[in-house]
From TrEMBL, chain A:
It holds the Pfam family Redoxin. One of its GO terms (molecular function) is disulfide oxidoreductase activity. The chain crosses the membrane at residues 12-33. It comes from Croceicoccus pelagius. Keywords: Cytochrome c-type biogenesis, Disulfide bond, Membrane, Redox-active center, Transmembrane, Transmembrane helix. It is found in: Cell envelope. The lineage of its organism: Bacteria, Pseudomonadati, Pseudomonadota, Alphaproteobacteria, Sphingomonadales. PROSITE patterns: THIOREDOXIN_1, THIOREDOXIN_2. InterPro entries: Periplasmic_diS_OxRdtase_DsbE, Redoxin, Thioredoxin-like_sf, Thioredoxin_CS, Thioredoxin_domain, Thioredoxin_ResA/DsbE_sf. This is Thiol:disulfide interchange protein. SUPFAM superfamilies: Thioredoxin-like. Gene3D superfamilies: Glutaredoxin.
Automatic annotation (TrEMBL), chain B:
PANTHER family: CYTOCHROME C ASSEMBLY PROTEIN-RELATED, CYTOCHROME C-TYPE BIOGENESIS PROTEIN CCMF. It is a multi-pass membrane protein. GO terms for biological process: cytochrome complex assembly. Keywords: Cell inner membrane, Cell membrane, Cytochrome c-type biogenesis, Membrane, Transmembrane, Transmembrane helix. InterPro entries: CcmF_C (IPR032523), Cyt_c_assembly (IPR002541), Cyt_c_biogenesis (IPR003567), Cyt_c_biogenesis_CcmF (IPR003568). Its main location: membrane. Required for the biogenesis of c-type cytochromes. Possible subunit of a heme lyase. It is found in: Cell inner membrane. Residues 91-297 form the Cytochrome c assembly protein domain. The gene is ccmF. Belongs to the CcmF/CycK/Ccl1/NrfE/CcsA family. The keyword Glycoprotein does not apply. The chain crosses the membrane at residues 6-29, 41-64, 98-115, 124-144, 179-199, 211-231, 251-269, 276-295, 315-333, 354-376, 396-414, 426-444, 450-470, 479-499, 609-631. This is C-type cytochrome biogenesis protein CcmF.
UniProtKB/TrEMBL annotation, chain C:
Belongs to the CcmH/CycL/Ccl2/NrfF family. GO terms for biological process: cytochrome complex assembly. Residues 1-21 form the signal peptide. One of its GO terms (cellular component) is plasma membrane. One of its GO terms (molecular function) is metal ion binding. This is Cytochrome c-type biogenesis protein. InterPro entries: C-type_cytochrome_biogenesis, CcmH/CycL/Ccl2/NrfF_N, CcmH/CycL/NrfF/Ccl2_sf. Keywords: Cytochrome c-type biogenesis, Heme, Iron, Membrane, Metal-binding, Signal, Transmembrane, Transmembrane helix. It comes from Croceicoccus pelagius. Pfam families: CcmH. The lineage of its organism: Bacteria, Pseudomonadati, Pseudomonadota, Alphaproteobacteria, Sphingomonadales. Possible subunit of a heme lyase.
Amino acid sequence: MSAPDKKPGKRWAIWLPLVLFGGFFVLVMNGLVRPADRDIESAMVGKTLPEFTLAAGSQERPGLATDDFRKGDVRLLNIFASWCVPCAAEAPQLDQIARAGVPIDGVAIRDREQDIARFLARYGNPFATIGKDDISEVQLGIGSSGVPETFVIDGTGTIRYQHIGPIMERDVQTILAEVKKAEAPL
Amino acid sequence: MIAETGLALLWFAAALALLQLFASVMTLVGGQSEAEMGGVVRPAAIMQGPLVALSFLMLMWLFIRTDLSVLLVASNSHSAKPFIFKLAGTWGNHEGSMLLWVTVMALSGSFVALVERRLPERTMIATLAAQAFVSLGFYAFLLFSSNPFERLPTPVPEGNGLNPLLQDIGLAFHPPTLYIGYVGLSVAFSFAVGALLTREVGPAFARAMRPWVLGSWIFLTIGITAGSYWAYYELGWGGWWFWDPVENASLMPWLAATALLHSASVLASRDALRTWTIMLGVIAFSMSMVGTFLVRSGILTSVHAFAVDPERGSFILALLAIYIGGALALFGARASTVNEGKQFSLVSREAGLVVNNVALSAILGIVLLGTLYPLLTEAFDTKVSVGPPYFNPVGAFFAIPMIVVMAVGPLLRWRRDSFDRIAKALILPAVLTAAVIVGAVVLAPGIRVLPLLGLALSIGLGIASLLPLLGRNLLRTPLATWGMVVGHFGLAVALFGMASESAFSTEKLVAADIGDTVEVGPWTIELAGIEPVAGPNWTAIEANMIARYEGGDPVSLHPQSRNFTQPPMTTSESALSTRWNGQLYAVVGEEGLDGRWQLRLWWKPFVPLIWIGGLIVALGGALALIGRLLGDMRKAHQVRRIAERREERPMGGAMPEPAE
Amino acid sequence: MSRILACLALFAAMLSVPAAAQDQLPPAPYAYRQLEDPAQEQKAQDLMETLRCLKCQSQSIADSDASMAGDMRNQVRLRIKAGEDPEAIRAWLVERYGDYVSYKPELTALTWPLFAAPLVLLLLALLLLRKRFTRRLPVGEE
């Protein structure tokens, strides 16, 4: 065996930086053209709702607990707050969904009763129950990272779908379809 | 008119850069007729600096006058802002900071064209061609997609204001310092490209490039140090380094420049590591550009809807592809024809510097990989976060051997040495390192591994770094040697601060009534009162705290919670009390329902050493730079004298070349 | 470091979303309060420094003023107080938010290159450098 030739050994290494840069380029190019997806999806979709009991956030409605989601009907769990501006924007759509016969349970994040009352008086009250979550316990429990967010929960208490951000006009049909889907057991 | 003049100056400078590129390319491909077109190259380069600087002054003027008919001023300034922040507002936004970038680039181009006369003229013209080519891209970026001088159709009555977090004296000096560092590396890049184009890679190239690398590196060091301190006192949680993508973007060029600095000195003194030095020259500025891209494109700024401008992102990415891709392709094509240079023994100064280079490059690779990794997994629809639990241990994996070699390397001779010769000198630092380990484990059981190693190695390195001065006449020791000693010592000081902060900080979060006393570490702090105060564009509540160190003299601290209206935002202004052995850090938060105030207090032993060490490192760089420049001047003088003598005695025999 | 630039981006975000409203509730009990047992508090602190604030930009929950970060600190401290293992709490959060919430990457099919990288770099360096060194310089050379 002769001593290894220096040149060929060197050559591939010399192109290594360019190859790595090529990889970098493809990577960031891909990152630039992909629609910026900044949402943090919950990993709880498909899993069972965690145990919780929340006191009522409004005198007009009772509070809620996990057991309320195991009674056989598909429900929406809406994470909202009176201090959150997009939550006001989704109020008409929530109303529309409620009128379509889907019960909606509200979880008010870090909110005061008087503020919730004012919010409901102003933007309407589509909620069947309203729970007060003062320490984001339910929010953390179901993997929600902001307000508003809406979860579809089936009749056995399993989380079936998550919608991040306000429900806009165009999202209503999607949500209703997801509710329909959730009526069939997994 | 001011805005229009500024814009016209920019266009003029861009045209000159085009001329510079054209003339230098013609000279390079046209062959011998260097005199015809080549004569244009330097003047074209020299003129750009003042032109762009003037343009930058125009923008500053617009900000100082708060000219609300200019879009950039209207969206980033406010007439009620204090003067210094109006001024700093010039570069506290995308367009203004890009203009600053181009200004620094043009000034460096001017300067290098003006003073650098040692390289063969052909290499110099190739270097200036590369500099013009790079500048043109940034001129285009500024003029076509980030025009700072754009007018509004109708002036607005009031500006939007500047983010309160940025209304701080730290902002006034931090970005310009970093930018000088980032952009100064473009000259090293151009030298590397010029050397590749003309195949002139040798000690002369390294010597020409070295002051630029050193200069940029000094500014980067100061910039990173200042930025870390700014984050420390401004963000209000006592953290000084977060491995945030934006921080990493400034660390990566520094790592590359540090490696380049060391490999360039091997090349300059020993004519070894030729291809490696060239590659680092390309990489260092590439890292500046990559960092800028990552920050500007918003591609890594994660979480919740950010206003990202994909057009700008694509523009910078295209520039990256042209410059970095082009330079690395040139490197691939040419580097195999460059001889690697001289070999050396496993125990030698060169070998030490090689270990340093490998470690720095590996840390650079790790930081780059960790920063980009979330982007990579996102392509597979998975989001991950890479943070301190990854960077700290993996960084230490390379940093620890590097620190050990840093202690030993400077004592070794070039080319070939033996450990036996230096073993005696190293006994003291080795013993002390071991003693610190044992002592810390005994006195502070439960200390974690990294802070423990950091403490011990910092002591060892601190002593070992001074050993090269041993037995020398300190007055006759070259400045460059002093620079190395001071720089390495500064790193030991910073390391000690980091390790101490990490190992010995104590934290106290309390809700306190007025009159309550809180203890944190050796301090006793009384909350004496809470007062409302008002500034030029904010109102605040200010706590009056009376702190005593071990029952000693009272020190008063006044942390604030500031409310800005333009734009609306609350910031915490921490209050610091510095002693020789650490810093007390106090923050006042909100008032609770029970009327008690949220206080956050930290005692951080020796934490100021982090930044003092950083500044000592920069000082070491400055000493080395001065030493090199003086040496260069002395040598130029010698060369001139010899040339003169030759003219006097044309028949004289071969003159000896001046020694290095 | 040049967090300034990060803050600029944050600032831009705030301008584009005027909905940066704040809630009025006081922070959760353990958001700004330490655990009584210093050893437990140390555990909680170490864990919090490696959990990502979901609402902020690149900050851990240990150094964020966001109210959700406060609620997360409350959860962490309560669970530590109840005797839960820090890694179990991390797993609990990862179960809800995915790996994103943890700054400590787990070794998975997708992340192994992160952990292989240091070794690859080391091998690469050895491979490229082995020819640079001479065992012994011939006497009298140079």
